[in-house]
Every structure is written in structure tokens, then in C-alpha cells.
Design goal:
single chain, nine-stranded antiparallel sheet, 411 residues, globular
Length: 411
Amino acid sequence: MAEAATGKLASIHPAQCREWPGHYTFTPEEIVRIHGIVAMLLFWIAASFTSSTAAETKATMKKQPFGKTEDGRSVDLYTLTNKSGTEVAITNFGGIVVALKVPDRNGKLDDVVLGYDNLDGYTSNTAYFGAIIGRYGNRIAHGEFALDGVTYRLPQNDGDNTLHGGKVGFNKRVWTVKDVSGSPGPALELTYLSKDGEEGFPGNLNVRVVYTLTDKNELRIEYFATTDKPTVVNLTNHSYFNLAGQGNGDILGHEVVLHADRFTPVDQALIPTGELRPVKGTPFDFTKPTAIGARMNQEDQQLKVGRGYDHNWVLNGGGRGGLSLAAEAYDAKSGRVLDVLTTEPGIQFYTGNFLDGTIHGKGGKVYNLRYGFCLETQHFPDSPNHPSFPPTLLKPGQEYRSTTVFKFSTR
Ligand code: GLA
């Protein structure tokens, strides 16, 4: 360094400068050059400061009261904001994702999940908007299953089936909360002890769910559970998405890809028959981007019993331990893209077939038929009664683990 500086000084011709004792005086050309360099430096400092403030707002977590349950327990709403301003609001009642604000292709934020403005909506909600579903996501036929020779009977809340954990599933429980924010982004940990015998299931089940909003606009959901008796577990999240913004029309024009060559057809009660049927040549083939509504009204027995899509797809890359891309959805108007990655072997694609305009959701928006779609990552419905399906059995000493990522981007 010192040598280089000396070298530079030495290269200036003595005639180019005047010398005062102890001082070095710059020539006019040098002064112009220095001005240029200083201006460039100032511009660079200002530019880097502006871009860092625009792109890197601080990640935060804000807590506010959300209301009281019927038995008088206070619950809160936690709003997680990442560095680019994407926001998710989660309540510890049911671990419900109440709002999810993501940018469109012009950077405009919109709330892309259905739900209610306040707790009252959720306590009486039968649509499972945004909730953590457990102990067993989707249906168990006739509300019963056998384990080690013992038959367990569960409350029947869907004809004679048990749906989404029974009468009071995890979606209606108050969870304990901890802020576990870290380098990937703001994060909320929810824990719940489901007691032995709750909703008919055996074993004390300790459940932990971590929601992380990463700085890459991913909502990462990690599920963990342990038990003290053999039991069955199948956890998921029941968010209804509308990438055009909640309440802004139906989702029939959204293009969807499901990375699945087979699905599990169902009987009249929406219980899998056990068959893994190829999707090829049927309206269930979403291996290429296809509008949700493109084949919805085709003459098809499975579409008829489901009143649309309400089926489990067998994921090509699922259930092998790592995360793999399960589904993609795209709304051409807003440019929003949702990619779903999961460790689970299946995904329930449900197209809001039971929404009928009677629900007044957030901001007074009316939710009509097919105003939202769900991508519920899961083990297959009724697995406890289908030994050929990937097992949902959890034994003492084992840990249930499952991860799903909802990743948002635009194109
Ligand atoms: C799941 C089920 C549907 C329906 C919804 C909630 O997606 O498969 O049949 O029960 O949940 O309305």
C-alpha cells in the first residue's frame, strides 16, 4: 500500500504542481478528477443505503389480542413480517393462519387466504379455514380403527366417518406459543398436549408445530409429535388459497400442477376404495398446468361424488424423507405463484365444494362456491384401515415429523 502510494506521488511531474513547504498542492486536472471520484463515492454510498432500506425492512413479530374462547381463555394474533414486507398472521386458537399477505407481480400485497376477521368466526367455523388439523387429518371410515387388537371408536362428525380429528379437533384447541424467530425469518412455535383418550384416540400426544416465514417468501410448517402409547397421527394445514386475493372471485381459472401420476378414488362417503388409480386420461390428470375449472363439469363418477375435486393424490416424490415439489398454482391476472413442497406421501386437493355463499369472511367478503382451494399435504385418508397405504402409526420412542413449505413468487 505504502509503496503504491509513494509510486503514485512519484509519478506526478514536478512541473504539474506547486510546492509549499510541508504541503502538496493538486493541479486543476487532479481536482476535477478527485471531485469526480468523491461524487461517485457519495452516489454509491447513497444508492446502497437506499436499496438496503427498501429491500431489507427488519423482520418482526407483533402480538395483539384476538378475543376470548367460549370458556373464557384469551387468545392472541401473531403477525410475522419478513424483510421484504410479506406478512402472515397466526392465532394460537387452532394454530390458524388468519391472513397471508404476499405481493403480486407489481409488488402489491394482497391477502391470499380465506378466513374471518375475529375469533368468533373461527369458533363456529365448520370449513376449517387455515387451521392445523389433527390428530388425524381427513376421514377415518365409520369412526373406528383397530390397533394391536383393540378397536378404538371416535366421534362421528361427517356422516358416520370421523373427519379432521373429530368433534373438537386440533383446529379448535388453544395452543401454547413461543417466539422462536431466527436467521431464516420470524418463527412461531405452537405446542399442544392431546390427552390420552381425547376424541377417542389412544396415547398422550405431545404436538409441536413451527411456522416460519422465511425471507424468501416461504411459509414453512414443521410438525413434530411424540406419544406414550401406540396411536395414529396425520397432521396438516387447512388453508384455503385464492391467489387473486381472498373473496375476489372463484379459483376456476387458476392453473394447477400436481406432481402425481395416481390418485386414491373414493366411495360415496369419500373414503378411499384402496385403489391407486392412474390419472392419465382422466380429469384428475394435473401433471401439466391445467385450469382448475377446465374439466370440473365433465361426466365423471369421481367428480360427481366429490362435488368437484376433493381427493387425495399420490405424490410421485412423496414420503421419501426429503422435501419434494408436490404442487404448483398460478393466477395469471395477479402473476402470483404458489409452490407446495412436502415430505408427505399425499396431498388432498379440495376445491371449496362446500362453500355456498353463506359465509361472510374477512372484510365482509362473501365466500361462494369454489372461492378457494386447499392443498392439504398428508398421509392418505383412512390409512389406519388400509394396511397397503403408507402407515400413520406412531409408537412410543418414535418421533412424528413432517414438513410442508408454501412458497410464493410471481411471474
Ligand atoms: C377436506 C375434506 C373435505 C371437506 C373439507 C372441509 O378437504 O376432504 O371433504 O370436509 O376438508 O370442508
